Amino acid sequence: MNALLQHEMLIPAMAGSVLLLVLIAIAIHYKRRGERPEQRLRSVADDLLANFLIPNGDEGEITVGLALLTRCGIVIVDLKDVEGNVFGSDTMQDWTVISDDRRFTFSNPQFALYDRMAAVRRLVGDVPVSGYVAFTKRGEFSKGLPSAVIQLDALVNNLQAESQDLAGDAMLGWLSQWDALREIALTVQVDHLLKN
User: Fold this and answer.
1) What beta strand segments (E) does the chain contain?
2) Can you give the residue ranges of every domain in the chain?
């Protein structure tokens, strides 16, 4: 009888343990989802547009990775998720990433960022537009950060602090330009799809 009672108590204990493990796995999953760069930026922006096309001002189009509506204006973000030491400067045409077993180069991302910022400025009038090339923490700059380059953690912290320091009154005046930017992006995207 005693063994039967122990066996009956063992089943609920095991079920409770399994339930606890499932809850821990779910919590880890949602925590990791919140750690994705775009999600982190979305959490500190009032609105966000991702991966959209707009006119570049030269009868062409330009892709914008992320545009955030914040209390300081519109922030253009080019996200870079590279692993290793990044060597780049304002004057270098190509930047290099060196990791344990790999080395590769990519074009200086500042020039493309400045083009994206200029294209957005043409469309939003007097709304302040700033921009950053944001690297995840997997990329390290041992020689210092070039202009307009920031670590993603620092950008999130800066935007969070700015949103707490500033009232949203100015941003309310920018909503019509933000909505116009969204509409232009949608129109260009549809036109682009219809051409192809």
Assistant:
1) 47-55, 61-70, 73-80, 84-87, 94-98, 103-107, 129-135, 139-140, 149-151
2) 1-35, 37-195
